[in-house]
Amino acid sequence: MAIHINSCTTTSFLVLLASFFLIVRATPAPNHVGPDVDLLEFPLNLEYLEAEFFLFGSLGHGLDVVDPDLAQGGPPPIGAKLAELDHFVNDVILQFALQEVGHLRAIKNIVRGFPRPLLNLSSAAFAKVMDSAFGKPLHPPFDPYANEINYLLASYVIPYVGLTGYVGANPELLRPASKKLVAGLLGVESGQDAVIRALLYERRELVVQPYGVTVAEFTNRISILRNKLGNRGWKDEGLVVPILQGAEGKVPGNILAGDRYSLAYPRTPHEILRIVYGGGDEHVPGGFFPNGADGRIAKSYLYA
Ligand SMILES: *[C@@H]1O[C@H](CO)[C@@H](O)[C@H](O)[C@H]1NC(C)=O
């Protein structure tokens, strides 16, 4: 009897297995994320930005040395360079850099993607972000590569935007393979954001020289700027907030950003473009992307 049931089960299992392979075989390889392709390609823009900023910051060179194939012939970034970092921060940033290289590979394993876009990672590009955040030019201009604290503040500008993008993309995705990829990317991006925020939170009362402004105030200004540029409400919070904005409305410390339920905020691609282009308009490239971002979504705004 037992044997009979077993062979029955085995037969249905084999039928199931066969139909599974038929379905899989009927679907050409890249199509398992078919309708999600644009949403999976879009974050390559940010992953290129992060990879180059962290590679140059920790090693003094970028993808063209580490893995030229991944750049796919895209132009080298403008103005990126080795940052003056102590051993600890350098060690952390190098790990982030290599994680971003992995992310580029992971995305390109699933979608065709595009070559590295032109990136402006010059001190001047970061200085402009900080000037906008403070509503006036800082003297001397902010230099992300000058020391640990400046580099960490500059890093505060980047993975968080990617994180909100992955949170925003998730409910739009249709295929399990896409959701699996985005969940994996989100996990590590939010880990990077958490490390950067934790390192800054430890130094939140430190006065950033020569500006006479605390680390906490820098993060608040940057977050307010991103809320303004994204122009879709409150999705960004500094390290110290009014108590009502802290977790459960009970604490001013804000080591991680989150909504009233401490859930991560979502952003759409056009909100992200408004921020990384620096001018609050997804149709007008600039900021870190002088020629605009690549992929169908970004291009649809550029040529609209
Ligand atoms: C890079 O950004 C700085 C600051 O906005 C700007 O002055 C410079 O012209 C930019 N470089 C390119 C090639 O866009």
From TrEMBL:
Q: Return the protein name.
A: Desiccation-related protein PCC13-62
Is the keyword Signal assigned to this protein? yes
Question: Which organism is the protein's source?
Answer: Crotalaria pallida
Q: Which PANTHER family match?
A: DESICCATION-LIKE PROTEIN (PTHR31694)
Top-level taxonomy: Eukaryota, Viridiplantae, Streptophyta, Embryophyta, Tracheophyta
List UniProt keywords, sorted A-Z.
Signal
Cross-referenced InterPro entries = Pigment-catalase-like (IPR052965)
User: Secreted: present as a keyword of the record?
Assistant: no
The lineage's top-level taxon is Eukaryota
**According to the UniProt entry, where is the signal peptide?**
1-26
**Which Pfam families does the UniProt entry name for this protein?**
Ferritin_2
